[in-house]
Amino acid sequence: MRLSFNSVSDLIFDCLINSSTKLNLLKRSFTTYLTLICLLIKSPLLAQTDSIKIQMVKTNKPFYFGFPVLFYTPETRVGFGATGVATFNFKKDSIGAQQSRVNLIAVYTQNKQVLLYLPYLLFLKNRTYQCGGEVGYYNFNYLFYGIGNAPYNEEVFFLKYPRIRFSLLRKIKKQLYAGIKYNYDNVTLFNLDTTGSLIKGAIAGSRGGIVSGLGLTGVYDSRDNLFYPSSGSYIEMTGLLSNEFLRSDFNFVKITSDVSKYFHYRKSVFALNCFAVYTNGIVPFYQMGLLGGQNRMRGFYEGRYRDNQLFLLQGEYRQMLYKRFGIALFGNVGQVANQWNQMSTNNWLYTYGAGLRFQLNKTQKINLRIDVATDNKKVLPYFTIGEAF
To answer: What's the whole-model pTM score?
Structure first.
């Protein structure tokens, strides 16, 4: 999974929508759309916590946005909580300096499920330094479809884990940053499907365990805006090592590459994204590269396809049409494999879709995003804040 489900909507809403039968889809439709109305959560506001850029503005006026959460699903029964985001500058920042950001998500359900996490990104000394990451606790259920590109039966599994994400970067020169990153998860699995594959214990990570990884990260960021980029580039490279010295139960290396490029013509924006994951060693299934979710290959449940290696290409056309309203058209193609040399032209998976945009904040260009995506077998809607990349 990446187990960085940084939103309630991927954890609850995607579990609802991605049913294997039409009967379950119809059965859950009411609670799905109730969840959509209540949860405007999954977004880059709550993700990419380690390396982003806030739009340059002429003042240092803080921005606050928050609301209560109330929902019902068969998996959770009644759930309630709150979510919010704050962007701000420190007192010694110059006028127009990029803003720091803190988010908070807190949810509790009638089935005693808990989602509590605080992503943050702090810019210090006019972004000479930036400190980002997340502190959280998760106790929830997810879907597992096996490993690889081949189809598998769907099974539900439950897990709980505390999470720590921390990165510290320093500006090397204009738009270029480098530093260290540390990830920690202590995963416990429970209530496994008695007829599934995880309960057999043969899959790495199926018995839980600690993942503790330390490494280097670098960012090049020339985007003109975080929430709705129209020009510039974003490049992030990260390499993490997890081993016994770091008190990890798994020994592996994980390297990720995230590259985006933006072009514009008048009110039209063309966005391209390439995301890749390379892992080597004993990798728990929840740390593998995965396809799906609201930001990487919309149209699949997050984790529908996962393996040691991943390659993904995304393209999107965006345009604001009238005042605060806009549209988007997008397409995605990707695949996973056990080894890079096993990537094949026959294994490409694709999804495509369209969406509507409503601008919530004109200064920061923060949009409400409503997308519909398909892989020609099912249709998945997404209701969130901010663009996918």
So the answer is: 0.78
